[in-house]
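Response to reviewer comment R2.3. The reviewers asked that we include at least one raw input/output pair. We reproduce the pair for Aldose 1-epimerase here without editing.
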Amino acid sequence: MQSALQDRTIASHRLTWPYGEATVLATAAMLAECRFDLPNGPFSPFARAPWMGKVDDRSIIGHLRELGGDFVCVPFGAGGHKGQAPEEWTDLTDQPASRPIHGPAGDEDWTVIEANPGNITLALDYPEHSPVKRLERVISAREGAPALDFSLIIHARRPAAISVGLHPIMRLPERSGTLELLADFAFGLTHPFQTAPGQNQEFSDLARVPQGDHTVDLAHPPISQPNLNVQLCGMRGPVTAIYRDESAGIVLDWDRSLLPSLQIWHTDRGIDGPPWHGQYRGLGLEPIAAAFDLNDAVSTGANPINARGIATAIHIDPAAPVTIRHSITAFSTI
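Raw output as returned:
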């Protein structure tokens, strides 16, 4: 697998199995690259930042320096005031930005505990002030299948409610209509920072997401709008992404009893400043127990999503670690 990771020395581990090859970094325990070998040829569904392996500025958060295909966020929050919002969100959107965004999990270098050609286990100890004591992340190539299995084990220092998110990012094709998303959910909401007061925020069809006086088809990205975030609340099953031009796709499955929503983050060269510089294209398919990517305090408190019975946080306790599993399985359509 040719890789920008060769541009400089970095702690990494390669997974190899008869159905593919993947690279995992110590930084943010990032799944940097992955190729699945399908009957109709190689398939690489994950996004990869063009600057990966080339950014040494430590003021840039770890998961942005090495922005690849899958990492974890504990807590999930980002936060920061971004202007007007629908009335029911107004008092919740002025929280300060989280530091670091998406927690230490997405910033620091994890310790490799065990690694072999088929799997890797990494761990990260959290600071003393955090209710989280330690994270463990296991990434395994599934025997006999073009699939990766992931486990996140959260050890608590004290009982608490925290937001949690997984962060797979899929590759955006160049043309609309060549990628199809299939998802079954109770209700969808546009991001409060991307919804003006009085505008419709809720939708039931991913192909008709409200944006002011019109709708956009997020079931067939990319869309003409460079940046869009939505939350699909009460997911009833996995999400499927089919790349029609490549006759291939993926199924993202996870424990929805713990992470009941899916945030979709669509960005098509829509972010400026370092390290983005208007280059990045990606489609985040992010299982979450959170209220969007708002400050963790919004997710763990009362908000318009958990008021409707959809959990926006998980509960952790030192007596019993929490294990969250997800998987990505590739398939051929021919």
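The two ends are 25 Å apart (CA to CA). Residues 1-10 have pLDDT under 50 and may be disordered. Further pairs are available on request from the corresponding author.
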